[in-house]
Amino acid sequence: MTALPQLQADGYCVIEQVLDQTDMDWLRSLCGQALSNVSAEHRERNRSQGSLVLIADYPEFGRLLGHPVLSKIFDELEFRDPKFSSGYIISKPPQSPALFWHQDWWGWNEPSSFTDQMAQVFVMIYLQDTQPQNGCLRVIPGSHRKLHELHYVNAHTESLSRVENPNDRLFESLPDQVAVPINSGDVIVGDARLIHGAFPNEQSEDRTLITLWFHPNYNSLTPALQSRISEIFLRTGVDTDPDAPEKKTPLDWPDENRVGCDFYFPKKLAGIDPNPWCRIPERQ
Ligand SMILES: O=C(O)CCC(=O)C(=O)O
Questions:
Q1: Which domains does the chain show, CATH number per domain?
Q2: Confidence of residue 1 (pLDDT cuts 50, 70, 90)
Q3: Which atom number of ligand 1 is nearest to the Cα of residue 135?
Q4: Is the pTM of this model over 0.85?
């Protein structure tokens, strides 16, 4: 299946070998510098993820946002008006636990959440070959459109992030899971509604990933959703990285880092209340 039909049917697709060795070396070096600033407390608080570092603090990531490979992928996937909200470096140390099962959509009050409309997608770039043994992505295919029992569980809790109960079922394998092994240079795109998680990293090297969040058809979203997206972009009303050295947003980036990517930045909507956080769908 080509990328767009797979994304529509399964809720994710893998686009193979689009970033070259130079890109990957540069990303590994940039993420390595950012991760060297991560505190032990941050690691403890995000034990399941491994780390959760906002790329907004590192203006050099403008080059990734503006990379022609991304716009080519978006064209292929027929994203008409993609806007960026946030991005994270998620790095699992050696011998670290699974990432809990979850989905990332927060606008379930909006009726379009139950249609084919994709309001938010992840773009995942793993910085090394990644298989089940070193913590690759695992997904429940089709769960972006067919609600699963796990959609009704709030997985975005501090306790799960800290792995306070390693026996929680959200860390376990599921009968309907599919592993998504990839090679360095591949890019995964997936619908935020998809139930997904990651295997434990059982190997002796870090497993590092960059997740970028985009809104493929931003201009077709309600003003309330657009307003929340702008808040996320501006790091107001939510902050997953409270101990970051300075709280930058991409609007603080020097011009040289914004050029070629600022058309992805959502505009601030004056006088429009942001959509309430609604991370769990109502039972249909
Ligand atoms: O760590 C991973 O492999 C997946 C990260 C993830 O699920 C996310 O960014 O939402």
A1: 3-167+174-262 (2.60.120.620)
A2: confident
A3: 3
A4: yes
